[in-house]
């Protein structure tokens, strides 16, 4: 090997030094870096799981809102029907006076239904805002100003659900 310009003792020393360096790097750098990456991966996985659970909670809350709105609508329809029947009975007794009374009764019933529906929607919005703030606080692991976020969410919900008058 001397003829090729290779010094065997130097080559063996360099090979041993390289192996020792690899072993040192494996214990000093590779394992800690891999452990740190595994921990980060675990935290990311946990955050994703939390986000998924928040999403599921949001979907459940949305379904609950739909159920409450449907119930309010059914109740409203029942009230309108009762008010209409009452108006018809009064109309048969005294035609002119009963007609005015029936219209007033129906209008009051509709206003009451609108008010109750609005109250129910506002209650659901507040609950949804609380749930959203709580979920967001858990996901980002920071304390949020609950009242300020609730007002912001209520404003956005109000703007997005306000019926457009033509």
Task: Show the helix and strand layout.
Elements (H helix, E strand, L loop, with lengths): L7 H86 L1 H46 L5 H16 L5
Helix pairs in contact: 1-2, 2-3
Q: What can you tell me about this protein's structure?
A:
- The chain has three helices and no strands.
- It is mainly alpha-helical and 166 residues long.
- It has two domains: 1-46; 55-160, no CATH class.
- The longest helix has 86 residues, at 8-93.
- It is rod-shaped.
- It starts with 7 loop residues before the first helix and ends in a 5-residue tail after the last helix.
Following the backbone from N to C, one meets helices and strands in this order, namely HHH
* Strand coverage percent: under 5%
The number of distinct helices, counting runs of at least 4 residues, comes to 3
Describe the oligomeric state of these chains in a short phrase: single chain
- From the alpha-carbon coordinates, what is the Rg to the nearest angstrom? 36 Å
Q: How many domains comprise the coordinates?
A: 2
Low-confidence blocks of residues: none
Structural class: mainly alpha
How would a crystallographer describe the biggest sheet? Answer: none
Q: How many β-strands, per DSSP?
A: 0
What overall geometry do the principal axes of the alpha carbons give?
A: rod-shaped
Q: Portion of residues in helices?
A: over 70%
Distance between the termini: 96 Å
């Amino acid at each position: 090997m001397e003829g090729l310009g290779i010094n065997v003792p130097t080559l063996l020393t360099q090979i041993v030094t390289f192996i020792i360096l690899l072993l040192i790097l494996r214990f000093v750098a590779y394992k800690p870096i891999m452990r740190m990456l595994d921990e980060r991966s675990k935290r990311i996985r946990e955050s994703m799981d939390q986000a998924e659970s928040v999403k599921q909670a949001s979907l459940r809350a949305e379904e609950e809102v739909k159920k409450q709105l449907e119930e309010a609508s059914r109740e409203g329809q029942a009230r309108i029907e009762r008010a209409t029947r009452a108006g018809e009975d009064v109309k048969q007794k005294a035609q002119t006076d009963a007609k005015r009374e029936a219209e007033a009764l129906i209008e009051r019933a509709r206003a009451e239904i609108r008010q109750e529906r609005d109250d129910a929607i506002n209650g659901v919005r507040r609950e949804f805002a609380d749930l959203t703030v709580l979920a967001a606080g858990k996901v980002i692991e920071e304390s949020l100003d609950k009242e300020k976020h609730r007002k912001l969410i209520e404003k956005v919900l109000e703007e997005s659900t306000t019926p457009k008058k033509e």
